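Hi U.,

Before I forget, here's the chain from the pilot set. I'm dumping it here mostly so it's searchable later in email.
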Amino acid sequence: MPYKDPNRKKEWERLHRPQRLARRRELRTSPAERIAPHHSGEEKAGTEFVYFIPLIAGGMLAAYNPKLGMGAGVLTIAVAAGWKKNWAWWVVGSVVLLIGLLFYFTQDKKSDDSLGSGEHV
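Structure:
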């Protein structure tokens, strides 16, 4: 047996090195990669408009209740930072936050009249 004699073991490893390296390379690849090649250059069609859905929903929420809109914008930015999302999620969160701030500062402020008479003093 070649492994009992160190010199014969070295000689056997030298002679069979290419086969061993090829076998290691083959074992490193997963079964899914061997069956179907990976196409990294392809993207799904229609993914460029996916970010408009949360943007529209956040804008509608900000129009309904500006504080909820601002909260949704900040939450979107926090999730984008925490899960390391791409730049588009940062933009969506920022735009929703800005829309919420816009609605918050432009809405008519109702008076805090405790009697509800509606007259301004």
